[in-house]
Amino acid sequence: MAQLGWFTEPGGLLTGLDRTLLRRRARTSPSAEAMVGAAGRVVTPIPRGGYGEVLFCVHGRPLKYAARARTPLGFGARVRVSAALSPSAIEVAHLGPAADGCP
Question: Full-prediction pTM beyond 0.70?
Answer without folding.
Answer: no
